Amino acid sequence: MKKLIIAGIIPFLFACSAKDVEKDLTKEAQLKQYKSELAILKSKISSLEKDINSTSNGELSIPVVLQELKASNFEQYIQITGNVEADKNITISPEASGNIISIDVQEGQKVNKGDVLGTLNTSQIQRMIDEAETNLRLATTLFKRQERLWKQKIGSEIEYLQAKTNKEALEGNLEALRAQKDMAIIKAPFSGIVDEVYQKKGELASPSIPFLQLVNIDKVYVEGDVSETYLNYIKAGEMAELDFPAIGYHRNASITRTSNIINPGNRSFKVRINLNNQQHRIKPNLISVIKIKDYEIKDAMVVPSIIIKKDFHGSYLYLAKKEGKNMVAKKTYVNIAKTYNNQSLIASGIDFGDKIITEGFSQVINGTLISTK
Asked: What is the structure's pLDDT at 303?
């Protein structure tokens, strides 16, 4: 039995041994291939290092982006906050007192100049008018008779003058009463839209109580306060940029006028810009951002402000300069005249045609070898 078991195991062991040998041969072949590839890579790396060392004397260069300095325009703006106003935006109150017997308009309704907005109770005034008309008819009749007699040289002059004066007084009184009655009729002083009605029918109206608000925004204006520092730079007729952030609206317009006085409270003067607003996009009391140009120079040296650094000696930036076959970063001090909107106006220190390092400037120092991306 033992001999039979051993005889069965031996072929199995030989089979396993053959498979292991085959696996070992495969691994050795892969290892040999990897070593061959590694040798090729080392050769390429060595070749590249030699090329770099031959061009940079063993020192690696910093990749940067260069920009040639060319003439450009520099503009500086001041920015203020303005408020939209409308000249025809008023609260209407009646000129007389009395109960409101009718409101003839609704909120949002468009009205024309002279249209009746509401009516107050005029019964008492009407009675006074009726009485004055009756007295005037009598006085007129007496005057005419007295006038005929006077022409016939009958009667005294005093009687004639008294009749005439009485008639004219009653005419004046009647005219005043009719004017008072007209004051009880509330009319639109201009064409516009009824924005809000404050009172109701039956309530007591008076000149001290607002009746309704009437607005016409076909024409509006923007007004803002500018520091007195800019008094010599901002004049009527200059262009301004208006931005209305709440409605996403932008437009340009000229300055209509500047005030002639300085506000002692905040040391500023007012700027007014009139606007046509036929589409009614701009509403009264809307906030506007006003940008007004206060400085401009053409054919100037302008660089991004971000590339300028400072030390104890002043402001500087990096230029690209040729030294033999290599290109290096050169620390160059500049004089800055003005800065606005991340752009700096350079007064001196560099010239047109210089190559400025605009990217990678934070990774170099004076004399660093550089290469362009």
From this structure: 93
Show me where the domains of the chain are located.
62-73+298-372, 79-87+219-297, 90-213
- CB 90, CB 158: distance < 8 Å: no
- Taking the domain 90-213, which CATH number applies? 2.40.50.100
* 8 Å CB contact between 214 and 190: yes
Given this model, what pLDDT does residue 5 score?
47
Write the CATH number of the domain with boundaries 62-73+298-372: 2.40.420.20
* Distance of alpha carbon 291 from the chain centroid: 8
Q: Residues 128, 131, 135, 140: what is their CA dihedral angle, to the nearest 10 degrees?
A: 80
CATH class as words, domain 79-87+219-297? mainly beta
CA dihedral 65, 68, 69, 75 (to 10 degrees): -70
* Higher pLDDT pick, 122 / 286: 286
The pTM of the full predicted model, rounded to 2 decimals, is 0.61
Q: How far is CA 324 from CA 199, 321, 328, 353, in A?
A: 90, 10, 10, 19
pLDDT tens track for 185-203: 899 999 999 999 998 988 8
Q: How far is CA 158 from the centre of its chain?
A: 76
